[in-house]
Amino acid sequence: MIRIRVTRRNGHIAQLSADGHAGCAPKGEDIICAAVSALVQTFFFSLQRLLQLDVEADISDGHFSMSVPADLTPALQEQVTLLGESMLVGLDEINRSYPGFVQVSEE
Length: 107
What we know:
The chain is an alpha+beta fold. It contains two helices and five strands; from the N terminus they run ββαββαβ. It has a single domain (2-106), classed as Alpha-Beta Plaits.
């Protein structure tokens, strides 16, 4: 199972971590792992490329974690929030289509 943890600060995504493997298919063929990775990494790279934020991530086999800078302007924070909520919509839809492989929790 892929466990995704979202930590919020004042209602906005402050940290994101994803750990584990879906185990739906062999490594390299698992569409759920590929879909989750695509959504999580698109959020991360969008923060870097579209919003020019200095965000770093820890990425290894079966692990991803990142933190959103705390000192954002309100307008920039809203853009980060929109991108993050879009990622969460995608993760929720994966969970609806393939129940039992992805767990999202929020703190």
